[in-house]
Design goal:
nine-stranded mixed β-sheet, alpha/beta, Spore Coat Polysaccharide Biosynthesis Protein SpsA, Chain A, 2 domains, eight-stranded mixed β-sheet
Amino acid sequence: MICHFFSIFERLFVLWTSCAGNYFITDIMTKINCFVPFTSKKQVEKTVKSLKESALVNQIITLDAKKEPMAQTATMRKIAANADCDYVLLYTKQTTLSLGYLALERMVEVAEATGAAMLYADHYAFMNGERTNKPVIDYQFGSLRNDFDFGSVLVYKASALKAAVKKMKVDYKFAALYDLRLKVSQKGRLVHINEYLYSEIEEDTRKTGEKLFDYVDPRNREVQIEMEKACTQHLKDIGGYLKPEFKSVPFGREKFEYEASVVIPVLNRVKTIKDAIESALKQKTNFKFNVIVVENGPKCHSWDGTTEVIESIKDKRLVHVIPTRKDIGVGGAWNMALHHPKCGKFAVQLDSDDVYSDENTLQKVVDAFYEQKCAMVIGSYMLTDINLKMLPPGKVDHREWTPENGRNNALRINGLGAPRAFFTPVARKVMFPNVNYGEDYAVGLAVSRNYQIGRIYDVLYFCRRHDENSDASLSVEKENMNNTYKDRIRTWELEARVAMNARKK
């Protein structure tokens, strides 16, 4: 291992704090080993200088960023072997780190007070020379996303890190840091300090909508496979893993006038709604279908001309629903469509921004229900601009989703793919949460708890990205709110699965 040691002689740090005119003295004997990626002396020297300012730091060990990335299990083992202090700090970026005043002292104080196995904190990010706030979110039982944002400074209790590394039986090239976090979380708390304790350089200045599809980029497939493997083992360790055993789907139990309904929730999409509806109405099938468009929002319907566009389309198969309530979101719109007397046996999603790839999509989806004996079907899509010009990464097919392990991996990934389709009786029972984000993901997880989810790997859908997409450019606060909610969905689902497995024993 290529290391550069910056030793600091042991000393007693006397921390003075004031409170209501009184002064307290705290003796801190704790020491920290810091591990920092090394690409060049220029890259690392400011970070090392910042770390050396804390009397708590015992050693600063630099790791060759190319030969010893923290994503590799071998590097984790070397870190554990060199961790001879109470705490271990991992700095995960290759840009400059600047710790806040007494930041490490504060992290140790919180660690000692809470018994945390790992700590992370809010921080500042410098982007294009400007400082921005980067608050992060609390870790939950269901926070299984491998791209969970902890920031770049992770402080582990050394004993917890060593115990976790000892349990590592698989040598990963990409998933070691993720594997470490999961194993540490099995035995201890991951504590979020809601204070801005350091500053870092942020190099990724893309909008949220541009980052959204990184995890499904085919170039990252090898990474995704490793992450799935680590997550699956974690689920087995905590009792949340589900074997590939599924309930049968009662297709013939209820009678429906229509075999399928295309469901389009909409609010203020005057530029795209006509394309979406016409795409649905052009479908060629050997069964009877309709299109249910449900408006939603604080005024019950759109106010940008969308309502008028819908009403201008004269087709008996088009069902236009305008709620009388003002509290209906996207999920509520889905519930209204599912419970509509004209809803078909299968409810097939189409977003108001998007279009089906050709006139055979609906037939393929319905056929898949019967062929794969599933209660939900997820297709594949092509990412495009508003004019259907392909955008990177192009085709998104979630190849990592397998019939054997898809419902376990669904707890890790941030989306299930599109278009989504549901066997209506099951979807009615599960119900959509009445929210505008994550509603389809919540239903997909709940359905997969008991039923198989079918997959179609053909491109069925053009996902059209434009500046008016609801997730095109989110503030960090909005993005955090969305991620917190999705983690909450995962937590509830994971708790349900653990309880279900416990009942079977």
